[in-house]
Amino acid sequence: GAVVSQHPSRVICKSGTSVKIECRSLDFQATTMFWYRQFPKQSLMLMATSNEGSKATYEQGVEKDKFLINHASLTLSTLTVTSAHPEDSSFYICSARDETSGGPSTDTQYFGPGTRLTVL
Amino acid sequence: KQEVTQIPAALSVPEGENLVLNCSFTDSAIYNLQWFRQDPGKGLTSLLLIQSSQREQTSGRLNASLDKSSGRSTLYIAASQPGDSATYLCAVSMTTDSWGKLQFGAGTQVVVTP
């Protein structure tokens, strides 16, 4: 089946630094990718929709200047957490939509393995 | 605003018993509903996808039903095994969204004891 990778899988950084997380679709092209964050024992919360070649669409309450998203190619989207603080510590998961099925009602989303961010 | 609820939040059963996981949603204007499995510290694995026009989907020991009008879906796992221990999430995509965004429930954490 389709595979989505994320890099790094785990990152620890100091407060105030920026961290970049990559999401790649390995065997299909994805015009649309999604970024989620997940707190312990909680569900996934959608942060933004990443569209190849255009600006990302952010969900209400998500700071676009804090969480920079770049979808430069059909197989790569990046999330940069700028000036990270301890409250940004979380599990970040991306997904990519395999659009060969013909539409959002039938397309399958494939999820990456997640990135654990810890900000000290 | 769509709200997705999963009950129970946690479930522990002995090996061999059948599992019944419930998911409800408040807005019936969905494209589809999916069930996922998440192992601790890992990403999501898609288990079943049910289109809004379908009533159920089956894959091996898994069966998922959908009653769109009442806003409910149930995931049945037959003859549970310790390897079924994981968190199970349901998610819906809405007809009002052209990107296919998913809205998730909080999940049911399942433990199957040998």
Helix share, percent of chain A? under 10%
Low-confidence stretches of chain A: none
Tell me the number of helical segments of chain A per DSSP (H or I, 4 or more residues long). Answer: 0
SS strand fraction of chain B: over 45%
Tell me the structural class of chain B: mainly beta
Task: Explain what this protein looks like in three dimensions.
The complex is a heterodimer of chains A (120) and B (114). By secondary structure, chain A is mostly beta strands. Chain A has strands at residues 4-7, 10-13, 19-25, 32-38, 44-51, 57-58, 67-73, 76-81, 90-98, 108-111, 115-119. In chain A, strands 2, 4, 5, 6, 9, 10 and 11 form a seven-stranded mixed sheet that branches. In chain A, strands 1-3-8-7 form a four-stranded antiparallel sheet, with no helix packed on it. In chain A, a hairpin with a 5-residue loop joins β4 (32-38) and β5 (44-51). Chain A is globular, with a radius of gyration of 14 Å. Chain A starts with a strand and ends with a strand. Chain B has 114 residues and is mainly β. Helices cover 0% and strands 59% of the residues of chain B. Chain B has no helices and eleven strands. In chain B, strands 2, 4, 5, 9, 10 and 11 form a six-stranded mixed sheet that branches. A five-stranded antiparallel sheet of chain B has the order 1-3-8-7-6, with no helix packed on it. In chain B, a hairpin with a 2-residue loop joins β6 and β7. Chain B is globular, with a radius of gyration of 14 Å. The model of chain B has no long low-confidence stretch (mean pLDDT 93). The chains are: A mainly beta (120), B mainly beta (114). The A-B interface holds A 4, 6, 32, 34, 42-46, 49, 51, 57, 91, 93, 95, 97, 104-114, 116 and B 31-32, 34, 36, 41-46, 49, 51-52, 89, 91, 93, 95, 97-107.
Summarize it.
The complex is a heterodimer of chains A (120) and B (114). Chain A is an all-beta fold and 120 residues long.
